[in-house]
Amino acid sequence: MLTASHAARISGVLGCEATWLSEALPFLQDRGKSNVWHIYGQRVDIRSHLRGMHPQVCPRCIHHDGYCRKEWDLSITAICRRHKCSLVDQCQRCHGRLRWDRPDLGVCHCGAILQSTTGQDINPGVLMILSAVEVLMMGEPYAPVTWLSVGLPAIASDLSLNGLMALVHAFGVNDAAHQAGRTQQFTRVARTHEWVGILERGSERLRRFEAANRSQLQELAELVSQSLLVRLAKAGSRGADAQVGLHVLEQLFGKTEARRLHSNHIQMELFE
Ligand SMILES: [Zn+2]
Ligand SMILES: [Zn+2]
């Protein structure tokens, strides 16, 4: 993975300031066994939430603006809010995955000009998550009222960027029940089209969660990723993130089970 430690070596090749580049690239804070990534001043606990070596772009934005947007470095930004289309992480001609060392921003290493996918109807909940990601990336507090107006749960209003990504991921990662426990689901960097699905399912289930009765909560509990929620609730997360994680675990699995999962995880962290 390309990280801040490479900044000095590659800044000459890219023709930019090494200091600027080292801030723009993710760096790893080694905290014993639990590594934490930082990018653009934001903390990211789950490595696969960063695209790393696998860029994704909106070719239309590149055509208009002439640069790549920093939120594209986050896996959750799988859709362009302006052009209402999926981002692109693969060349339509050679079918290879996009590389950092391509000849131009909008050109694949094979020489083909990258084409946008066609625009589509994106549900308002997904657009709101994406706009929240952009705002959080600028380090600004997000207005809770805006969340409520599109039906996203009020509990999500105080999350950090890291927390929001984990919550949406937890709710949207499984496309069917009983898929929990597959660790590679969140260690592997998912392709852009997979994250489009995560966003769609995640926003729709979060909306259902808010108004769910007992049996609907049980249905949801079969669908969400327990391990991602436990990570959200884990010690060391920002205050609101941990509270939201624990609250969602309690709602879905009951208080006793939620506490058991939570304390098991803390034990595991201590002995990792
Ligand atoms: Zn775009
Ligand atoms: Zn190509």
Overview of this protein structure:
The chain has 272 residues and is mainly alpha-helical. The chain has a domain at 124-271. The protein is 47% helix and 5% strand. The chain is built from twelve helices and five strands. It has helices at 7-14, 18-24, 59-65, 124-137, 144-149, 161-172, 184-187, 192-210, 214-223, 226-233, 239-253, 255-271; strands spanning 27-29, 36-39, 42-44, 79-80, 85-86. It has a three-stranded antiparallel β-sheet with strand order 1-2-3. Strands 4-5 form a two-stranded antiparallel sheet. A hairpin with a 6-residue loop joins strand 1 and strand 2. The radius of gyration is 19 Å and the shape is globular. The chain starts with 6 loop residues before the first helix and ends with a helix. The structure holds zinc ion (2 copies).
Topology:
Elements: H1 7-14, H2 18-24, E1 27-29, E2 36-39, E3 42-44, H3 59-65, E4 79-80, E5 85-86, H4 124-137, H5 144-149, H6 161-172, H7 184-187, H8 192-210, H9 214-223, H10 226-233, H11 239-253, H12 255-271
Antiparallel strand pairs: 1-2, 2-3, 4-5
Helix pairs in contact: 1-2, 6-8, 6-10, 6-11, 10-11, 11-12
The structure holds zinc ion (2 copies).
